[in-house]
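Title: Prediction job returns without error message
Component: structure pipeline
Severity: low
Priority: P3
Assignee: unassigned

Description:
Job completed but the reporter wants confirmation the result is attached to the right record. Sequence as submitted:
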Amino acid sequence: MARILKLSTPKTRARTLTVAEAIPEFLKGYEDGSPHTLRSFRADLQRFEEAFGERPVGQITGPDIQAYLEALKSRRAGSDGPVAPQTYNRHFGTLRRFFGWLEGQEELERSPMDRLERRKVGE
C-alpha cells in the first residue's frame, strides 16, 4: 500500500501541481513494495506523462483520460497494433491508483477516473 505524503495544501501551494511533478512522489510510495508493480507503474506513468506531463493534475478530466485510454486500444507506441485488453486494464488500474492517491493528497477533490470503466477482456 502506498504511503501518504502531504505534498501541499491548496492554500499554501504557490502553483498547481503538474502530472510530471506528481508522478515521482506517487512512485516513492511503492519503492519498498514489489519490483514488478513499481516497474509496471513506472512504464504506464511514463507513457501518461508523455501525453499530459505539463498539465496541472486538476485540469485533467475523465474525457481526457478516456481519450488517452482509447488511443491505447487503437495503436501501440513503436508498433502498428493496439494494446491487449490486459495491458489496457493495467494502464487503467495504474491511473486509478495515481488519481486516487492525488485525491488522498487533497490535490484533487474528486478523481477523474470515478466514472470510467475497465475494458472487458473479451473485447
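Comment from assignee: result matches the submitted record. Helices lie at 19-28, 35-52, 62-74, 85-104.
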